[in-house]
């Protein structure tokens, strides 16, 4: 970490992401709690996440923009736009304004997907290929560590000062992130132009992800996993309300426990990934999440805290493994589209599962949904753990060879 943070450019890059995520994390939890307080409905609260995911899934063509311009200037503009896009929430003063909340969350999701693709692509420029695992590990540890404070910050803001203060603070974090990007002096290569038809350029990321065996397997496992995580967006409110018999704001306490688990797991994630590989690290995270979901079912506070900590521990393992595998197996000129394609391939089923989970929660006991979520996680882990490509394709040289053998995906 000391070696990585000795680089000024990486410090600015990571600080910008941390500041932006600080506002995002507090806002996501706060919007759900806010809707729950306005309507009394766990399903309506969960649909705020559905709106966000729908927006996130609408950005496949945005990856082409990321690959056709320099990423740092693009990120500066996107952060400034996001600072403005969040402000309409200040107009909501009752449940009749739910449509404004959902509309803002769709736009918020779209910008988040575009920003995430640009950040993933810029990371390849800022960090040498051999240190991507360590850089992703450092970044995810810091981002997941924010869950120790941001849930309580978000829940407290809603309960004490109202959503307006948090909206303004979130906009300020986007402005600060833009300023830090301005301070960077990274030399980016000129964007690569292509004579291919526009449709082939837009779909190049999807074709790449689905043509590289290791990436295709990760997508399939991720689809199963995000289905379970999608159910969790609504189920978490039922766990707090029906299982633990606590007010909606108590969700902030559970999410802080999740952050604690994420920090502990994230600290050693890069070293663990070097030993076992990216795919096995993702599989380990899936098992941890499955066990964590099961512990939420009894309605016992100690078990719920342990369960949310295990779910938190799963996140850096899953995310670091996925992002590093994608970065190592994708040429820089295709990175924006590949990341956008990966996001769309997993967020579309996640959006559907959020909607289905919100509907099922009205007629099915939340404990049954938790059992189904556990089964999906273990199935995904079993699939990934039995794939040979995840165990043998572990070196940068092997990953580069895998990229070179993909046919028909040139940008």
Automatic annotation (TrEMBL):
Location (main, coarse): membrane
Membrane topology category: Multi-pass membrane protein
Membrane-traversing stretches: 12-35, 47-66, 78-102, 218-240, 252-272, 279-297, 303-326, 338-360, 366-384
UniProt keyword Transmembrane helix present: yes
Subcellular location, record wording: Cell membrane
Highest taxon in the source lineage: Bacteria
Alphabetized InterPro entries for the sequence: MFS, MFS_dom, MFS_trans_sf
Pfam families from the UniProt entry: MFS_1
Residue ranges constituting the Major facilitator superfamily (MFS) profile domain according to the UniProt record: 1-188
UniProt KW Membrane keyword: yes
Gene3D superfamilies given in the database record: MFS general substrate transporter like domains (1.20.1250.20)
UniProt keyword list: Cell membrane, Membrane, Transmembrane, Transmembrane helix
CDD domains linked: MFS_MefA_like
Record-given protein name: MFS transporter
